[in-house]
Write a structure and sequence with these properties.
The chain is about 65% helix and about 0% strand. The protein contains 16 helices and no strands. α12 runs antiparallel to α13.
């Protein structure tokens, strides 16, 4: 479906990403950029530096050996996780209410963070599935299209739910029928504007496509991560667990129900630590 002109104009007029995020996206695209160069990108941003050191010293990232420098933190975390942290802080600061999805102020950020952690757990569960590190970033921003949808579309969640129930379709399908696009397509357009790598753009755009027409490990990982994040109780809102999934995703990643359960449990453990580190109950 084509994104309506009004939404395209809204995307074109979006504020740019924070300069630190812009620099990191470019640096990660340059194979000559090592930990020292990546550290230079963030070390003059006090808020980012604080978050990077806090997360690098957390239990999820081997925090029993304390580190004190940004460069050591980059070595421990990796470049993609560095971008993940910068974007996560950006999403958290946005504090967006999303009544169209029945999501409260922190719900979108918490769901996004949980999805990113779920990809990390999935990569740990299926190390040979070929899931790249950048999939963590894709999972973190997979729902960014909702930011534009709630800002520029005047729709009551009850309208979407009535259409869903009347037609016997999913919430996302009802979204498409009402607005001629869904939040995944809008998110993909946003990611393109912001200069994200094609791998990330594709995962955002197609994480609700059934079946996935051109699957990649990143798209499949984001689909499973979204499900896992919802399964542990984040980002449910009006949509809840009303998802249509490509039945071949599990087969492509080689994950069964027991493996998915382990991913969810590990995600819950890390998610609890993450909320504690941010002082979120």
């Amino acid at each position: 479906m084509a994104i309506p002109d009004g939404l395209l104009h809204s995307i074109a007029s979006l504020d740019p990403l924070p300069i630190t995020a812009q620099k990191l996206i470019k640096a990660l695209d340059d194979e000559n950029q090592g930990p020292a160069q990546l550290a230079q990108v963030v070390e003059f941003d006090p808020a980012v530096t604080s978050s990077v050191l806090r997360i690098a010293n957390s239990a999820a990232y081997g925090g029993w050996n304390k580190i004190d420098t940004v460069r050591d933190a980059v070595v421990r975390l990796g470049g993609a996780k560095l971008l993940d942290i910068v974007l996560g802080d950006y999403l958290k600061r946005m504090k967006v209410n999303a009544p169209m999805y029945d999501l409260a102020e922190d719900d979108l950020w918490l769901h996004s963070a949980a999805a990113s952690l779920a990809v990390k757990a999935l990569r740990q569960e299926r190390p040979r599935a070929g899931i790249p590190e950048i999939a963590n970033v894709a999972a973190l921003v997979h729902d960014i299209g909702k930011l534009v949808m709630v800002r520029y579309l005047k729709a009551d969640v009850k309208q979407v739910l009535r259409l869903r129930d009347a037609r016997g379709i999913s919430f996302v399908e009802a979204e498409r029928e009402m607005f001629n696009c869904d939040h995944a397509e809008v998110g993909g357009a946003m990611a393109t504007k912001w200069g994200f790598p094609p791998e990330v753009v594709g995962a955002i755009t197609y994480h609700h496509q059934v079946p996935v027409q051109a699957p990649t490990p990143t798209i499949d990982a984001v689909i499973i991560a979204n499900l896992a994040a919802k399964a542990i109780g984040t980002g449910l809102g009006a949509e809840g667990m009303d998802l249509r999934l490509d039945e071949q995703v599990n087969r492509r990643l080689g994950i069964d129900f027991a493996g998915f359960s382990r991913v969810c449990i590990q995600t819950m453990v890390w998610f609890k630590d993450l909320k504690a580190s941010y002082g979120v109950k």
